[in-house]
Amino acid sequence: MPHPLDAAAVRTWCGLALEALGRERERIDAINVYPVADGDTGTNCYLTLESAARAVEAAFDGHGSAGTAPDLADAVGAMAHGALIGARGNSGTILAQLLRGMAQVLAAAPAGGTGAADALRQALRRAATAAYEAVAHPVEGTVLTVATAAAGAAEQTAGGAAEVARAAHQGAAEALRATPGQLAVLGKAGVVDAGGCGLVALLGALADALSGEVTAVPVAVRAGGPVPEAAGCAAVAQEADGCVDPHAGGPAFEVIYLLEAGDAEVARLRTRLDRLGDSLVVVGGDGLWNVHVHVDDAGAAVEAGIEAGRPYRIRITHFGAGPRAQEPALAARAVVAVVPGAGLAALCAEAGATPVTVRPGEPPASGELVQAIRQARAREVMLLPNDPELRHTAAAAAEQARAEGVRVALIPTRSAVQGLAALAVHEPDRSFDQDMVAMTAAAGATRYAELAVAEHQSWTMAGICQAGDVLGLIDGDVVVIGPDLARTAMTVLDRMLSAGGELVTLVLGADVPDSLAERLERHVRERHLAVDTVVYEGGEYAAPLLIGVE
């Protein structure tokens, strides 16, 4: 029997959508030829919905502790927010915007009756409109076309919310089947749009959740029949008789980050990023955005975000050499590094690593690290957690990646400066074991320190600190309590260099003046002969100062 459009239905919708995308993930990955034939659209849609489902469960858990249940507005808001912060790739980002558009309308919808059906019709139309607005250069024959068809079918259907959802699903499926005739690259490959497949699966789950009838109908992914289970993106491209992606020879990097910024700043950012690359999608609102773009200069894309606001969770993926219409060949070896701050992320990307950017209090989940390992597209990966708290998370990610056939070495880096030292000696041309030993040795030979500001009075190994005191931590332990950053940093440097050292690495946080680096460089030069100093900008969310001594 039909179920009302309420918070429980949203929870069921998330669960069924996750199951559907889990079933369809590999088949959707296999037909991914547009906009980039990188074989990950199904995975990106799944990970985006996984984040949405987690957020909805958290909303129910939070209300459960208070003895209440969330209302519809709370549930759809959580779903949209979870999708936004967890969006992956071009299709996942658009999917997040579709959910956000629906949530904007459904938050005020009545739970049942004709009012709920009307709200769902309006929500589907708002979703399609919002998706078009988010894409810099909309292309027909994609998920955008499928979303528009779903909204049109819903508006032409009478009945309750369950009937409207079923009509939207059927309209989307029909539009999906027509996409090979609208987009040349799909027609040559004989497949439908991969992003559209994800949306059809999502709408099918919504129809099942509201009707109470779980159909689990597979999404038709190919014009001439099902894609064989073993087929991959490269096989589809070959069957297209050399079909070429419209962006062949284009940008080399995919850059994605969350951004805290205002509407005016984001409008300027769109213009700047549109000049830098293609496949630009910016979704979100109310101060929080998810930015996706393909560029040749990944550092410039990140810097544009820094100028617009506060970027974090930065992910930079190299597409690999050769025409992008074919599946990128696997590299022999790659490095995945967890770093705090956009500056360090750009630095790692320039060195050839795949960065996973985090900010304080938001450590990455093991699934996020697994996805970064997949995006590195290498047979062998060196994983740098750069934080002792991530040891177990990184180990779980490494185990999962190994089960998928990737050889992973977990380098025991406890700080970003140890990660930089390990990355500096990385040599992909030498044997895996030799590279692992060299990187581990370089990290182990680097003592690390961090300067932080105490937020409240507390006991430390160096005594009692007061709120506002500067804390100097060496190898994770507080050893110095000082009145200001410069003098405390000098004390920490002297302690670290008393045991010897040849190179000092300084990583400055976003709010630290450049004059501090000059003072510390001069201090090292005058007090410790034959010791060199290098300085890097850590960016937003990096500690005020990180120090490494090798």
Which spans of ≥5 residues are poorly predicted at pLDDT below 50? 224-248, 321-328
Helix residue percentage: 40-55%
Give the structural class.
alpha/beta
Count of strand segments: 16
Rg (CA only): 25 Å
Side by side, the strands of the main sheet go 13-12-9-16-14-15
Measured distance between first and last alpha carbons: 68 Å
Summed over residues and divided by their number, the pLDDT gives a mean of 84
Tell the overall outline: elongated
Describe the protein in words.
With 550 residues, the chain is α/β, with parallel strands linked by helices. The chain has 19 helices and 16 strands. It has helices at 7-30, 41-64, 72-86, 89-106, 113-134, 143-155, 161-178, 184-189, 194-211, 233-239, 263-276, 298-308, 342-350, 366-376, 391-403, 416-424, 432-444, 485-497, 514-527, and strands at residues 253-260, 277-285, 288-295, 310-318, 331-340, 354-358, 378-384, 407-410, 447-453, 458-460, 463-465, 470-474, 477-482, 503-509, 532-539, 545-549. Strands 13-12-9-16-14-15 form a six-stranded mixed sheet, with helices on both faces. α4 runs antiparallel to α5 (113-134). The longest helix is centred in the first third of the chain and has 24 residues, at 7-30. The protein is elongated, with a radius of gyration of 25 Å. The chain starts with 6 loop residues before the first helix and ends with a strand. The model is unreliable at 224-248 and 321-328 (pLDDT under 50).
